[in-house]
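In keeping with the milestone schedule agreed at the kick-off meeting, the structural modelling team has produced records for the first pair of proteins. Each record is given below as a sequence line and a C-alpha cell line. The laboratory manager (R.T.) confirmed that both were archived under the project's standard naming scheme.
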Amino acid sequence: MSSEETTNLSPIEVYNHYLGLGETFEVSPKVGIELISQGTGEEDLTLNDVAASTAIQCYAPGDARMTTRSKEWERAVIANTLRAGHHTTRLHAYFTFRVEASRSVVHDVFHAHPYYNSEQQSQRYVEAREGFYIVRDLPEGQRIHFIEASNYMNQAYFEMLEPLKEAALQRLLKVSQEKPAGVDNRKKLSERNLKRLEDKAKKISQEVARYTLPIGQKTKMFHTLSHLQLLRLFAAAESSNFSDEAKYIIAKMIEEVAEINPDFLQELPPIVPVGDNPFEESELTTTNEALRFFGNVEQGSHLLHSTYEPHLLFQMLGMPEDIGIKQALQYVFDPRVNPSIMDLFDTGIHNPTTHLLQQIYFSFVTKLSHTANSQRQRHRTTLGTMPQISRDYRGADYITPMLIRENNELASFYAEKMKVIYQNYEKALALGISPENAQYLLPNAHAVYVYESGNLFNWAHRIRQRLCLLAQEEIFFITVEQAKAIGNAIPEAQQILLAPCGLRKIAKISPFCPEGDRYCGQPVYNWVPGEKFPDPLQQYTDQRMV
C-alpha cells in the first residue's frame, strides 16, 4: 500500500494495516508491555483520566484530583486538548516495552529522536547469536540470497572472534601497568590481572568482530515512551525512514497499550502525509549537494561552527568590570570554584552560572560506522542529522577498526569479507529486493555521515561519558577530537572536557576512577585536551582508526 493510499485511511484502518505487516516477516519483531504509569489511589485510572485530570488542573480553581473522569464535559476536555495541540496533558503517562527488533530500525527510528529511554543489549558485552537477524517474506530466489548473505556476515563474525581476542590481549599486555606490591604475591597478582585482561580482551574481540554483522541483526531492549510520543510516532509513520518493521512495531506498541487502556485507540491521530516530492526516488542519491559535501569528509569529527562569545558570557555573569574576562571564565569553568560543572547528576542545569554553558553552541560533521553512530545517538541532547542510508549508498564505504588495521592477517581477512558483503548487498538490489529490505544486509561497519550540534553543557556531559577508556573505541577517538576542538576554542574549558577520573582528580575524590573493578588501569586522569596522553597509553592512542 502506497503512502498516499495509507494517508487516505482512518487512523484505525491505518493501525490495522500496520499490524498486518507482521505477516510479511518470517519471524515478526516482538513487542510486549512491561510497565505503565498508574495512580497511587485505589482507582484504576485510564490514560484519558490522567489527561482530563491534568487539563482540569490548568483550567479550574483549587486542586484537581487524579481520579476517574466520565462526565460529558470532562470527556470534552480530553478531546479538545488533543485536537487543539495542548499535548502536555499526554506527557504524564509512560509505557515501557520489551522489544526484539533489528538494529537497523532502532537506529533509523526508535533512537533517532530525543523523547525516549532505552536499555539495549550490547553487542560489545554479549556474544552475537548465529542466525539472529530479520528476514522478510521474500520470493524464494531473493530469500535464498538474503539468508546466504546474512549467514556469511554472521560467520565472518565468529571466525574473527578468536584471532581478535589474541590480538586484543597482546595490545592490553603492552599497555598494562602491572605493579605488584612485592615479590611474594607477584605470581598471585599476575594470575589475577591476566584473567582480568583476558576477560577484557574477549569483550574487545566482540566489539570489533561485530563490524561484520548485518545491521539487520536483532537486538533486545527495554524501551520507554510517553503517551504523547507513541501518538507522535504513529502520526509520523509514513515518513520515508519508517520501514515496514517500524510501522509494525509502533502498531504492536499501540495494541499492547490498548489492551490495558482501550481509550488509547480513540486518540490515534491522522497520519501526516508525505509531501509531494518533485524528484524520482532514483534521483535522490549522492548527486545531492549535501551528500557530495559529506562524501569529502574523512573519518572522525570536524568542527564546523561555534557561537562562543567570551564578552557576552562575561556580561551575562554580572560581575564587576575590573575582574577581567579570564578570572570570570575561571568562575564558570574551574570545577574547584564551580563544583556543579562536574557533578555526575548534571545539577549544573539548575545552577545559574553553569547554565551559561547552554548559550555556547558547537557543530561538528562526523564520519563514523553505523554501529558507532548507534552509540552516538544515545546522547539525545547533541542531536545529529544524517542522510537516509538507503539513499546515500556510495559503494563499499566502511570503517576498519584499529585492532584489525594493525594486524596484516586480520586486515586482509576483513577486507576480503567486506568486499563480498558489499557485493551481496548490490546483488540483492539487482535481484529486485527493495532498498528498504536490502539495507538489512549492510554491515555494522558501513560509514554514515552526521551533522551534529549541541550546547557546551551537553557536549561536556557527552565528552565526560565517552572519554573513558571503557567507551567504544571508535567513539572514544571521535570524542578526543571533539574535546580538542572545543578546548582550542575555549582554553578555559579544557578542565571540564575530561574523563570522569580526570574530573574526580581535580575535585580530590578518591579513587579517581568511579568504575570499581572495571578500572582500565591507565592514568587517563592525567590527560587534558591539547596534550599528549600519558605513557604508556600514548603508544595506543597514536594509532587511531583511519
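The second protein of the pair:
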Amino acid sequence: MKNLKNSLVYVGILGTFFALMYWILQIGKMLEAGRNIVEQQLQSSYFSQFIKSITYNLAHPVGLILAQIITILIVSRIFAYIFKKIHQPTVIGEIIAGIALGPSLLGMLFPEFSSALFPENSLDNLSLLSQIGLILFMFMVGMELDIKVIQNKVKDAVVVSNAGILIPFTLGIGLAYFIYESFAPKGVAFLSFGLFLGLAMSITAFPVLARIVQERGMHKTRLGTLVITCAAADDITAWCMLAAIIAIAKAGSFVSSLYIILLAIGYVLIMIKVVRPFLKRVGDLHASRENMSKQVVAIFFLTLLISSYTTEIIGIHALFGAFLAGTIMPENSKFRNIFIQKIEDVALVLLLPLFFVFTGLRTQIGLLDDIHLWKITGLIVLVAIAGKFAGSAIASKIMGQNWRDSLTIGALMNTRGLMELVVLNIGYDLGILSPEIFSMMVIMALVTTFMTGPALDLIDRVFRKKKNILSDQINQLRKYRIILSFGNPEMGRSLLRLANTLIRKQNESTSVTALHLCNNNVLHHYNMDEYENESFEPVIQESELLNQKITTLFKASDDIDTDITEITNKGDFDLLLIGIGQSIFEGSLLGRILGYTTRIVNPDRLIHKVSGKEKLFANSPFDDRTQNILSNSKVPVGIFVDKNTGNWNQVITPFFTENDGFLIEYIQRLIKNSDAQVTVTDPVGLINSHTEIKEAIRAIEQEAPNHIALDQVNEIDETFIQKFQLMVVSAEGWKTLIESRSGWISQAPSILILRE
C-alpha cells in the first residue's frame, strides 16, 4: 500500500511540473512578436537531418579524438597481447600497432578510412596528448632509477656504460658523414645532424631492459645488477647529452648554445640542492597511502609540470625536465611505488599508445621504395648493432667478464625500444631528421629491440654447460622433489604444510621449492627485493616452524601459467602443488561451487572459441589457466583447496575411475610421514572388481594396521564427510563429483585434487 501511495505521488509531481513547463513555453511564444523570428523550413527529410547531425558529431574534434583513442587502445592491446605470447616485449607490439594504423598499412590499404579517422588537422590534438603521456612516462623512468645502486656500482659499470655510448656515438657520426648529403634536410648543419645520429645510435631502453632482466630471473645475480647499473648510467648520460644537442641544434652553433647549457646546469643544481631536500621531507612525512592527501599529490605533480615547463622554456625539451623531476623524488621505495601506481595505468595504457600511433603516422615505410634505400636501412641497423652490441660486449670482456656474460651485456644494452622513439620524434620535430631517415631509424629501433630475446636465448644455448647425466640420475633416485607455486603468501604457507605432510619423515631424501611469480606489469626493479621478501616471509616462517628446508624461487613474468609449467618441467620435479585462488578458478564450475565468479574476459578463452578449441575444455571442472597448467605440465599436479580444517589427520579418498590407482602412492606417503588415518571409499563399486587396487590397500593394512580402512559406502553425505579434514581425489574423480552435483560438495573439507 505504501509503495502504491509513493508511486502516485511521484506521477503527480511529474505531471504537474511537465504541465507547468508546457504552459510557460506556450505563453513565451507571445514574447516573439516584433522580433522578426522566422520558422526554419526543413529543406530535406527528418532522416537526412539526423544523418547530417551524426556526420557532424563524428567529425567534431571531441568525437574524433575519442574515436581515435578507442581505435588506438583496441589495436595496441591486440598487438601487445600477440607479442607477449611470442615472448617479446609488449612495447614491440605497440610500436607495430602504431605503424599498422599509419600510412604504411592502413593508409595504403584503406586510404579513405585512414584519412577520415586520422585527418591532418586532428594530428595536433593527438600530438599534445601523446606528449603528456611521454612526460608522465619520463617521470616514471626517472623514479625507477635507483641512484644509490649507480653510486655503489659505478666503478664496475663506468667503463662498460661509457663504451656503450662512446663507440656507437662515434660510429653514428661516421655514418652521418656518408649519408648527410643524400638524406639530411636542407638547412640542417652537419654538426646537428651528426650529433643527433650519434645519440640515436647510443640509446638504451632502460625500462624494457629492466623488465627483461626481471622476467629472466637475472635481477639477483651479479650480472643482472651490473647490466641495470650500466643501463641506468647510460640513460642519465644520454639524456644529458640530448639536452646539450637540442641546445646546439636550436642555437645553431656550439658557442651560441653555451648560454642554454649554462642555464640548464644552473637549473639542475637548483633541483638537486634545493627542491630535492624539500621533496624528501614531504615524502618522509607522507610515505603511506593513508596519509598521502590530494594536497601532497598536487605538490609532486606541480614539481613535475614546473620542471617540464622550465626545461621547455630554457630550450632543452620538456621531457628532460620530467626525467629530472623523477630522479629527485624521495628515495623511499614505498612512496615511489604508491606514486607510480597512481599514474602508471593512465600513462602506459591510455596515453602512451597515442605516442606509438603518432610515431606510426609519421613512419612512412612506403617512402623506402628503392633497393638503395633498403641498403641504407640495413647499414643503419648494422652500425647500430656493431656500436651498441659489439661495443658493450668488447668493453665488458676487457673489464674481465667471460664471453658469455660479455655477450649478454651487449645484447641487453642493444635494446632500444620506446626510448629510441622518443629521441627520434624530437629529432623529427626539430627538423633534423627527414621522413626517410626517420622511417629507417624506426625500423632500426624495432629490429634491435626484437632481437634481444632471441639473442639471449642463443647465447644461453651456445654457452650452456654440459650436465652430468649420471649425477642427475643418482640425485633423482635419491630425492623426491616437490615444487609449490603460490600467488597469495598465505596460500604458500598452506601449500608448504601440505608438502610437509607428504615428506615429513623423509626430510633428508626430499626437497621443496617455493615458487612465486609476479606479473611483470605491477613490478618495478627498485622495489623487487622488498616485494620478494614480503611474499616469502610467511612461507619461510612456516618452514622454520615445521623444520622443513626450502628453496625459494622468484620471477617476474608476462605469462604466469606458462612459466609455472616451464620451470616445473625443466626442474625435473616429482610433484607440482598449486593452490586454489580467485585468479585460478574464476568462471569454472569448481569456482561457482566454491563461490568464485568471473570478472574478467580471458583472451585465451576467446582464442579457443575462434579456433574451436574451447570444446576441449567445455566439460572441465577447471578454468582455462588451471587447465593450461594441467595440460602442459609433464609431472604430477596437485590442486589444493584449503578450507582450514586442521592438520589433515583424518583423510578420505574416494575411488571413482579405474585410473585412480596412482592415489595409493599418496595414501602411503600420508600414512608414513604424518600418521594419517585414511578412509578409502568405493561409491561406484570399483575396488572389488580391480584386484590391483584391492591388493595395494591390503598391503598398506599389513604394513600400517589401524591407519587405513576400506568403507564400502555407496553414497557420501554431509554427515559422513564432516568427519574428515582432507579429501584426496583424482582429477577424473573430481570431475565425476562435480558433474553429479552432490549437495555435500560445498561441505567438503580441504581438498587435494591430483593428476598423474
